[in-house]
UniProtKB/TrEMBL annotation:
Protein purpose: Ferredoxins are iron-sulfur proteins that transfer electrons in a wide variety of metabolic reactions.
Species assigned in the record: Streptomyces hyaluromycini
Domain of life per record: Bacteria
Protein name, per record: Ferredoxin
Keyword Iron-sulfur attached: yes
Length: 66
């Protein structure tokens, strides 16, 4: 899986960081970002729930094809 956060859409609600704190955090400006090395979610089962929790749908999860 590959996780992307659209920084132009993110409002910094922090729901992703609350739901999956091993994958998401907030930067100095309060916007969501991935922890280092977590662009694939690190196998955390809460990643998809964190994406659903985003009130502005700024998180996209892409599953590998093929």
């Amino acid at each position: 899986m590959h996780i992307e956060i659209d920084q132009d859409v993110c409002i910094g609600a922090g729901q992703c960081a609350l739901t999956a704190p091993n994958v998401f955090t907030q930067d100095d400006d309060g916007f969501s970002t991935l922890l280092p090395g977590m662009d694939d979610g690190g196998g955390d089962p809460l990643v998809k729930e964190a994406a659903r929790a985003c009130p502005v749908h700024a998180i996209t999860i892409k599953e590998p094809t093929g």
